[in-house]
Give the backbone structure.
Amino acid sequence: MSKKSALHIAKGVKEAPFINPNWKGAKRLKQDTDSLAEAVLQGDITALSAAITIAESTSPDDEIKCRSLMNRLHPKSGGAFRIGISGVPGVGKSTFLEAYCSFVLNNDPDARIAVLAVDPSSEWSKGSILGDKTRMESIGKSSRVFIRPSASGGRLGGVARSTFEAVTLCEAAGFNFIFVETVGVGQSETVVSKLTDCFLFLAMPGTGDELQGIKKGIMEMADVIALNKCDGDRTNQAEQSAIQLQGALQLITRTQDHWQPPVLQISALNATGMEEMWSALDRFQRHGQLNGWIEERRREQQEYWFKSNIGALLFERMSEKETWGKESDSLLAQISKGEVSPFEASRRLMDKILA
C-alpha cells in the first residue's frame, strides 16, 4: 500500500464539545488533560492507552476528561487509512490481521499500525474475554503496532460506544493504518462503515457466504471481499465460491461510482494472498481519493455520529426530568397489560416531556 497515499486523506473534521473555562475544576482538568494530550501527540503508547481507557469509561468525571481530550486531539486526527474488518464468527479475522499486518510491517518501514479489536460483551455479566491481543501475539511485539481490545458493551453494529474516539486518539498518536475488527455477528455489523474508509468483508468458501451477495445488508457495504481459508482441500471449492460470489455482486448497485468490490482468495494461516490484498486496498484508497468519496464518506460519518449522539444525549437528559419516572412507569404498566403498543407509548411520553 502506498505510504504517501496513506498519509494524505482529507480530514474534514469538526471540533469536539467545548469545556466551560469558568468551571471550578477547569484549570486542574486542563493541566491534566493537556499533559496527557501532549503525550499522545508524541506517540506515547502508555498515554494513548490511558486516553482510550478514559474514553471507554462511563463515569461522569471521565466523560468530562474525554471531552477535554477530544477538544485538543480531534483537530489533529484524520491522517490515517481506516479499514473496518467484518465477517462471521470463525472466519479468521484475528489470524488474517496478524498475517496481513506482518506483511505491511515488512514492506513499509514507515507503517505504524493500530488494531482496535471489539469483542462481544455478555448480556448477563457485561464482561468480555478480550482475547484478540493474545491471538495476535507476533505483531503485538512490534514497537510499530498498537493492539487495543475493547468490549462492545452490548451495542449492536459490531463496534463499541467509544470506537470513534479510539480511532481519533490513534490517529492523533501518529498511527497511519487503523484496523477496526468487529465482533463478528453477521448482517448487523454495518456501523463499522460509519467510522472507516474501507470496509473489508471476510467470508469462507463453501459455507453459503457467496449467496450473501444478493442480500441488501453487510455485503452491499463491502468495498473489498476476501475468501479466507483457501488452502488444502478447499482450494477448488474456493474457486467456485469466488465465481458465485462475484456473480451475485453484479446484482448490487454501488453508491460509489465505478467501483466493483474485488473478490480475493487468501489463506491467513499460510499468509498467502497478502500481496493481492495490499494491492486491492491500495487501489481502493487511490480510487476513493481520486473520486472524492473518501473525503465525502468522512463528512457523512461526522454527520452520522453527530445525529447519533444527539439521540443518546436527549434520552439521557429527558430521563433526568422529574416527570420521566412517573410517566414512564405508568406507560410501562399499560404496555405490559397490552393496552398500548411500545411505539405509541414512547410517542406519548415524548409529547408530554417535550411539551
Notes: The first strand starts at residue 81 and ends at 87. The mean pLDDT is 79.
